[in-house]
């Protein structure tokens, strides 16, 4: 394993720890649970822009910068032997996947919340 991969894994571990240190307390403080299940009618955080959404937007921007840096390095002839190419390859893969998974889960949770609060026939159609 090259130096770029090792540094990238360390950076990913640190960023994951930061994300979890923000997400876990936010979940405990703002998500209403009854009998171990989320009560979507009483939980309002899913209908508002929150700190985690801002952090995810920042992560998406970081991912775009990593992909562009990787494109720049590869187009200038650097190969996977280069530590920077290794770093940006790993960062681009990890955070693209995390960002897409968060987007899908966020949309799903928001739609569940809307359905629980206002039912199936929103707008009386």
Number of strand elements? 2
Rg of Cα set: 19 Å
Total number of helical segments?
3
Share of helical residues: over 70%
Strand order of the largest sheet: 1-2
Average pLDDT score: 90
Which overall shape is indicated by the principal axes computed on the Cα atoms?
elongated
Percent in strands: under 5%
Unreliable spans: none
What structural category arises from helix and sheet content? mainly alpha
Q: Sheet bearing the most strands, described?
A: 2 strands, antiparallel
Distance between the termini: 59 Å
Along the chain, the helix and strand elements come as: HEEHH
What does this structure look like?
The structure is a single chain. This protein is mainly α and 125 residues long. The chain has helices at residues 3-30, 51-75, 83-118, and strands at residues 33-34, 37-38. It is built from 3 helices and 2 strands, in the order αββαα. It has a two-stranded antiparallel sheet with strand order 1-2. A hairpin with a 2-residue loop joins β1 and β2 (37-38). The chain is elongated.
């Amino acid at each position: 394993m090259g130096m770029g991969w090792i540094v990238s894994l360390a950076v990913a571990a640190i960023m994951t720890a930061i994300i979890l240190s923000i997400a876990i307390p936010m979940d405990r403080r703002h998500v209403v649970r009854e009998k171990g299940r989320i009560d979507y009618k009483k939980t309002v955080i899913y209908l508002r822009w929150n700190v985690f959404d801002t952090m995810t937007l920042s992560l998406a921007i970081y991912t775009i910068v990593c992909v562009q840096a990787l494109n720049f390095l590869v187009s200038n002839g650097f190969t996977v032997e280069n530590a920077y190419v290794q770093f940006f390859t790993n960062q681009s893969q990890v955070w693209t996947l995390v960002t897409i998974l968060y987007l899908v889960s966020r949309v799903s949770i928001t739609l569940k919340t809307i359905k629980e609060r206002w039912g199936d026939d929103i707008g009386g159609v």
